[in-house]
Design brief:
By secondary structure, the protein is an alpha+beta fold. It contains ten helices and 16 strands. It is flat, with a radius of gyration of 41 Å.
Amino acid sequence: MTDTPKKTLQLKARPEAAKKPLALRAPVRPRGPARARPLSEVQAERAAREAAWAAQKPEGAGRPERGDAPRGGGPRNRDDAPRGFGPRSGGPRADAPRLSNADQRPTPRSGPRAAPEGARPARAPRDARPDLARVGNVNGEVRLNKRMADLGLCSRREADEWIARGWVLVNGQPAVMGQPVPPDAQVEVLPQARHQQAGQVTILLHKPVGYVSGLPEDGHETAAVLVTGPNHWRDDRSGRRFEPAHSRNLAPAGRLDIDSTGLLVFTQDGRVARTLIGEDSDVEKEYLVRVHWAPEGPRGGGLVTQNVQAVFPAERLALLRHGLSLDEQPLRPAQVDWQNPEQLRFILKEGKKRQIRRMCEQVGLHVVGLKRIRIGNVVLGNLPVGQWRYLGANEGF
């Protein structure tokens, strides 16, 4: 049996493929902001570009104008194109001189482009427009909602609502939202607005400890949830009967800390809110504050819980009355006196967050109980904890 020779498969490279060089593509510049270059480099490239352009231009042609070359370095028409460029080609032909990426960049503009003939004029810068609010102030004008609030007609929010409903007239004409009015303008409110305002209520609540004044937070309910029919005080002398609408849209006019108790006001009337918490409010708030003497903190040494008045320095009591600051702002003068050996009586005309507790900490006192008993001319009286009553028609703050 004869052995047949084994055949092997041999692959041969094509000679033309081996000789043909690989085509190299120019690196693509990634998109992004142009890098800053030295001025000298830019000027040198510009001079080289103009020299290359002049070599391709016919004799007698001057320096290339800005309009001769389009953005990107290409020509605008066949006549102006140097050798190697076609009218629709995207780049140079093989026999054209190669230009670097920098040479093909457009020449930076030295000034704004002239607007074409018949074009719409450019809009004025925003800073050049007149400030209507500032012009109004110069003429003594203010916005209508602010004027209405200053006149005591309503709050700004109520004013905007009335204006939107067409219930406000200025010099006999229906008012417009945001309208500026001069000092001598006649502002008239229609009876519909007065009727709506007459139905608004103000509620006086004896807030218990554990409720917050505003929106619920940290798992604690707002004190407004206590304004229900069963919690209405039986001895309320206002003559009003509770309606479900009276518990809606109630806003707290002031605050009481979660661990404080006493008189808290909720109202639907913007005039009441402005009186109690407005920027120019001057209504007194009276508090009874039980304290311990704690010069090193409530858990430090030297703690005194009985007859605190005997050990509390007189100069620190003077600081409570005037001389302290909170949040880098000086506090207004306050009336502070001893109600009994363990309890102080505060009368304030402002209401910063946790103000009394922070004032006491600065003079070495620790507050263990705080109760608000009066706001303006309205007193807490015998109102039980957790119950509420209406503000009477003959009452005012």
